[in-house]
């Protein structure tokens, strides 16, 4: 077996070991195995993604963002990786870069409701409330019972001055998330309205 074949076999073994350690909930050891995998085979996209997921789970946002960035260099058309990197960059307050990644995710997979939700949250943080409402409308269309997205959409309607849509969404939320509706009443000073209204 040539050197390349031996390296590929070793990287596969490290990758498999990483998954085994994940199953045992030994995530630090799993990361070490995935890092050994990419040391042997630097273009192993899945190992880079796993380093990103585990880093994100451990709260090591910068490390995770770098790993997802490396995965995107190797496979730029993966919507889930774009979303995950955008999520981390948002958490790190790198809003412009986060928005670019979230928008890439929605372009690559328009059915990825979490990416539309993330796009909306970032646009809200940037003060772009009308665009925020558009992104959140798509998130709610794709996942109608995502209470967090619906509440964020109500906030966006208030910020963009669309009280009619705010009240319509509030009524809808009240049907499936009464605690969320009560939160909105308090936060946005919405007068309770009857369901027939």
Write the layout of secondary structure elements.
Elements: H1 3-23, H2 27-40, H3 45-57, H4 61-74, H5 79-91, H6 95-108, H7 113-125, H8 129-142, H9 147-160, H10 163-176, H11 178-188
Helix pairs in contact: 1-2, 2-3, 3-4, 3-5, 4-5, 5-6, 5-7, 6-7, 7-8, 7-9, 8-9, 9-10, 9-11, 10-11
The global form is: elongated
**DSSP E strands, number:** 0
Q: Report the biggest beta sheet as strand number plus sense, adding barrel if it closes.
A: none
Question: What is the mean pLDDT?
Answer: 93
What structural class do the secondary elements suggest? mainly alpha
Count helical runs: 11
Q: Determine the N-to-C terminus distance.
A: 75 Å
Rounded Rg: 21 Å
Low-confidence stretches: none
Helix content: over 70%
Order of helices and strands: HHHHHHHHHHH
Report the portion of residues in β strands: under 5%
């Amino acid at each position: 077996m040539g050197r390349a074949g031996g390296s590929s076999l070793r990287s596969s073994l490290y990758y498999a070991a990483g998954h085994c350690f994940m199953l045992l909930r030994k995530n630090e050891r799993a990361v070490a195995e995935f890092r050994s995998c990419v040391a042997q085979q630097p273009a192993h996209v899945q190992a880079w993604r796993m380093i990103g997921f585990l880093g994100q789970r451990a709260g090591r946002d910068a490390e995770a963002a770098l790993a997802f960035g490396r995965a995107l260099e190797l496979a730029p058309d993966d919507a889930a990786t774009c979303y995950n990197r955008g999520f981390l960059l948002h958490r790190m307050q790198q809003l412009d870069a986060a928005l670019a990644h979230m928008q890439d995710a929605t372009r690559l997979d328009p059915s990825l409701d979490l990416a539309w939700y993330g796009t909306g949250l970032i646009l809200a943080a940037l003060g772009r409330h009308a665009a925020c409402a558009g992104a959140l409308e798509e998130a709610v269309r794709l996942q109608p019972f995502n209470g967090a997205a619906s509440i964020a959409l109500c906030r966006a309607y208030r910020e963009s001055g669309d009280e009619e849509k705010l009240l319509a969404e509030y009524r809808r939320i009240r049907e499936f998330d009464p605690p969320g509706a009560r939160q909105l009443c308090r936060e946005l000073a919405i007068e309770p309205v009857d369901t027939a209204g």
